[in-house]
Amino acid sequence: MLKKLIIQNYAIIDEIEIDFSSQLNMITGETGAGKSILMGALSLILGERADSNVLVNKEKKCFIEGYFAVEDRKQVLAFLQEQELDAEEELILRREIAANGKSRAFINDTPATLQQLKTLASLLVDLHQQFDTLELGDTDFQREVLDALAGNNQLLDNYQSLFRQWHAVSKELTALQDQKTAFTKEADYHQFLFDELNEAGLRENELEELDHELKLLSNSEGIKVALDRVCYELKESEQPVTTVLKQLIQQLQSYTSYHADIAALIARLQSSQVELQDIAAETVHLNSGVHFDEKRIEWINNRLAEGYKLLKKHGVQTTAELLQLQTALENKLQAVLDIDDAIAAKETAQSRLYESASQLAVTISKARHQQVKPLEEKVNHLLKQVGMPNARLKVQINDTALQPFGKDQVEFLFDANKSNRFEPVRKVASGGELSRLMLCIKSLVAQSINLPTLIFDEIDTGISGEAAKQVGLIMKELAASRQIICITHQPQIAGKAHAHFFVYKEVVNNQVKTNIRLLNQDERITTIAQMLSGEKPTAAALENAKELIAD
């Protein structure tokens, strides 16, 4: 709800402040008094582009500020949270235009982009001006009208839950299918690489161990010669080292009683003798295990050649890395088999969700179809009341694939002159007649849809008398649950106001300025009487004005 509008230095408005009623607000005034200027200023805080030409006083900036009550507007609060803007019960939209034409926008004193302002304003105000495109042409709104009349809210919540699940599972299924396609393209190559490694049959650290064995075999003759020489010098030469040590020990033993340290020296020599005897035995053992095997060397060379070829092919350095690669290839090949099971499971889930969503969509669609004829009849009846006896609305519902709101494409078709040439409302030029059409439709769903503030600019174009009275009555009824602001020239409409504002021009310091004031009861009677009979209303006009206000 728009609680307050403040305008400063806009066109011929110096400064005005308007406190709106929460119900039906009527704005009247002579032609040229500045009513359209008010709408122009309001459109700035609704996100329209600014023009520096609106600044008459170039020494001051233009300032427009709107105060909105949003405690019951869940979409508004959700938008503010999504945009990380302060969410409070009162929302302030502000535009400032400098003399150089630069414009700034603010939401709750936080700088905002024009798009943010425009998006937020669309949730707060539904502005109907002549020659503008009506929300009525929005197919989402048209569908919402049918759903509101059909009471589809809970069904839609259940359906949308299923639809989101189905959509998510469908995406997962597509991803799996794409993954399988990629796997399949590479499967033959992966199989070839795996078979090659599998046939090689490498064991852990095999290549490293074979490389060591090859070096041993290749040097086996030199090793045997060296071992034989060690063994010979220790045990078999003319003076074996172990025998010499034995003799030295014997020579020293006869002097142990004469020198205290000789015993320790003998012990060390005996230890060395034992160690050398053990080394000699180990040398014999090692020597017996070293053999030159030409066939073994040839086999190892072939095996290493095969292994080194695989290392080079896969760009790795060790047997362990080749075995890891073999395991990875095996996993990928297994994944091709596993993914078929996963795809089958997803297809089952997708089919189940689609079936459930489709059944619910059919139920929702039936409820919508049941409201088509009653809606057409009610709207067409109201159109006659508001001065459009030849206009007709036709609701067309076409089947579509499942979408977030069911399986229906809803289109409102309109024929203004009984031509039987119904065209989509969105293709029909808007004006007073289409504003009245919107009023008729919204009056039917006002209790079911949380409508924003409705602003009608000269909805009364082309009507008067009883038709204008009916427009006023519909507005008054609609305003019982929704704020309406209406600019009108018709006394029959103005008489239904809860708050009646009068726009006028005055001369201030030799300059013409637009101003506005809230009329009291007597002023309302006089103003409506003047709308009926002219500047100097007759007694009859005054009585008529009282009746219009009293109705």
UniProtKB/TrEMBL annotation:
<keyword id="KW-0227">DNA damage</keyword>
<dbReference type="GO" id="GO:0006310">
    <property type="term" value="P:DNA recombination"/>
</dbReference>
<dbReference type="InterPro" id="IPR027417">
    <property type="entry name" value="P-loop_NTPase"/>
</dbReference>
<protein>
    <recommendedName>
        <fullName>DNA repair protein RecN</fullName>
    </recommendedName>
</protein>
<dbReference type="GO" id="GO:0043590">
    <property type="term" value="C:bacterial nucleoid"/>
</dbReference>
<comment type="similarity">
    <text>Belongs to the RecN family.</text>
</comment>
<keyword id="KW-0547">Nucleotide-binding</keyword>
<comment type="function">
    <text>May be involved in recombinational repair of damaged DNA.</text>
</comment>
<dbReference type="InterPro" id="IPR003395">
    <property type="entry name" value="RecF/RecN/SMC_N"/>
</dbReference>
<feature type="domain" description="RecF/RecN/SMC N-terminal">
    <location>
        <begin position="1"/>
        <end position="505"/>
    </location>
</feature>
<dbReference type="GO" id="GO:0009432">
    <property type="term" value="P:SOS response"/>
</dbReference>
<dbReference type="InterPro" id="IPR004604">
    <property type="entry name" value="DNA_recomb/repair_RecN"/>
</dbReference>
<keyword id="KW-0067">ATP-binding</keyword>
<dbReference type="Pfam" id="PF02463">
    <property type="entry name" value="SMC_N"/>
</dbReference>
<dbReference type="GO" id="GO:0006281">
    <property type="term" value="P:DNA repair"/>
</dbReference>
<keyword id="KW-0234">DNA repair</keyword>
<dbReference type="GO" id="GO:0005524">
    <property type="term" value="F:ATP binding"/>
</dbReference>
